[in-house]
Amino acid sequence: MTDSNQNDVKRRKVDLEDKELYDLLNLDDENVEGRKMLDAEAVIRVVRQKPWLATKEYTFSTDGLIYFPLIKAIKLRAPIEVIYALCCPEAMDGTTQALLFAIRHLASFDAVKLLLEKQPKLVKEQDPYSGFTPLHYACMRAPLETVSLLLDEWPEAAKEQRSGCLPLHYACRYATAEVVSLLLKIYPEAVRKKDMEGDTPLHAACYEERNLDLIVLLLDSYPETIQETNYDGNTPVDIAEERNAPEDIAKLLSYTSILFDDELQKETLEEIMSFFTEIQWWRGIWLIFKRHPAATQTINLDTGVKAHFLSAAGRFCKLTSMWE
């Protein structure tokens, strides 16, 4: 056999070895059935026997893109044991978007934690197209514990503005009130920031069908945001009306906006106070007294309501003299 023939045989053997891991991972990660076909035990076995296979990049035929096996496994939502087996420096050097893929493809909390333990700098990865950080994506789709993990690793991520948007803007559209609350604790000033369209986080929340607790949380943080207009001249109230917001949210926004009018009738204030009491928005009642102190002197609060209000309002100012 000539040297040329011997080299061809060696090359074919290498190609066959390379394909062993490739074939196990070359599955359709876009649907559940494709992901179910992953043989986790076989992947782990092959990588233990031939660890160098995890360091190679493959062009997977299912999408025609080039990935390290780790990235493909993340897209397949592979078990944590598979992710661990495929972790290697080559696949986590900060340019492969490993953590970004994990967040975007709904990886488990354990998988995200593992990636950060292996390579903490991944928390500062940026999407080459949008510039988004992992936290931006997490605020669109990840659970609270994942968002918290990312913020623990890099608190300044809450201040990172990409495409004109802070993570809070996306959280207000897609995440839970708990996620929004966490972001506000890390970066309270974010509630006042506008994106490239001039929208505040409250505007962002009004574009979607969010729950009352989230809207209250934003108004608690900065009631004056109700007056802000975006670059189209729309306030949060305008957007809520346009999007046919639920009645309780529409009322909350409208009543809060009305409070910034200079003069209001006692009957109007009583109506607003009744609604704020019903939803137990004590900061709102405090706002009534702050904005219209003279007009509220004749308004009587139920004893039980007064007790709740005074307890909650202690964070804002001491108001006991109002009823003396």
TrEMBL record:
Gene3D superfamilies: Ankyrin repeat-containing domain
The keyword Repeat appears for this protein: yes
Transmembrane segments: none
Species lineage: Eukaryota, Sar, Stramenopiles, Ochrophyta, Bacillariophyta
Pfam families: Ank (PF00023), Ank_2 (PF12796)
Keywords: ANK repeat, Repeat
UniProt-recorded name of the protein: Uncharacterized protein
Biological process per Gene Ontology, one example term: actin filament bundle assembly
Record GO terms (molecular function): actin filament binding
